[in-house]
Amino acid sequence: MPAAQRFGRTMGSTNEDRQRRLVMIVEERNRASVNQLSAELGVSKETVRRDLAWLDRKGLIQKTHGGAASAHSAAETSFLKRSERQLREKQVIARLVNDLLSPGETLMMNAGTTVYAVANAISARNDLTVVTNSLDVGSRLLHARGGNSIVLLGGSLGQDSQTFGEMTLAEIRGFRVDHAILTVGAIDGESIFVDFSPEVASVVRAMMGQAKLTTIVADSSKFGRTALVEVCKLSAVHRVVTDTMPDSAISAALRRKNVELICPA
């Protein structure tokens, strides 16, 4: 279920409604101050601060000095900065994915720094066809010394130089591929994959629907985190490639759902 619907697990219904409204306000504006939230929600500043602390721990907003920023905005800091985080881990994941791909196979790849690392790993090859909504992935493969075929999906252009929207989704449905190599915002506990943006989540789900095998690439920092939008249940994914073994609860959940877990020995 969407993250907004999970507030009530630990809070009463009044708190749940207020916190849902708080997240919606912050998401709509990208940023909001404690003073603004207090006035619009009709509660004290101290109540707002407590809500912000709780929602920040859940990954639904980012608490800032004097207010909050949307989780989406917090997560979508510059692509270059994020590509440098967990760099070694992403390179390990990318090498593992490269080893899984056979000559002549077709891939769909979304936008994200871990997927970009995969693009780097396969860039020397000339035996793959890649369909992507990421200008960065497409450009990396185009200017590589390899000769993979590249299809760039059209649509509205958004953050991280990725296309999205109805045009993108319609074009995705025109392809059938062997693999969807995808990243998500987080792997929420033992049950679902989640992301910060409805548009990103829609692209991920559409690509999954057109692939024989779906592989989620995620470094270990994404395990046990949460975000606002549900992408899919664990059972919808065929395998997860990561840099280190997740904790026993998540590993067990993946096994129960017959999701292959691939990480370094």
Commentary on this structure:
The protein is of the alpha/beta class and 265 residues long. Helices cover 41% and strands 23% of the residues. The chain has 11 helices and 15 strands. It has helices at 13-29, 34-41, 45-57, 71-75, 79-84, 87-100, 113-122, 135-142, 166-172, 198-209, 248-256, and strands spanning 31-33, 61-64, 67-70, 106-109, 129-132, 149-152, 156-158, 162-164, 177-182, 186-188, 192-195, 211-217, 229-233, 239-241, 260-262. Helix 2 crosses helix 3. The longest helix is centred in the first third of the chain and has 17 residues, at 13-29. The two termini are 33 Å apart. Residues 1-12 have low confidence and may be disordered.
Spans of at least 5 consecutive residues whose pLDDT stays below 50 are 1-12
The whole-angstrom Rg is 19 Å
Strand runs, count? 15
Name the shape in a single word. globular
Taken as a percent bin, the fraction of beta residues is 15-25%
Main sheet strand line-up: 6-5-4-9-12-14-15
- Helices and strands: which structural class? alpha/beta
Number of helices: 11
**Whole-Å distance between the termini?**
33 Å
Largest sheet: 7 strands, parallel
SSE order, one letter for each helix or strand: HEHHEEHHHEHEHEEEHEEEHEEEHE
Helical fraction equals 40-55%
Mean pLDDT: 87
Q: Can you give me a brief rundown of this structure?
A:
With 265 residues, this protein is of the alpha/beta class.
Key words describing this protein structure:
disordered N terminus, single chain, globular, three-stranded antiparallel β-sheet, about 260 residues, about 25% strand
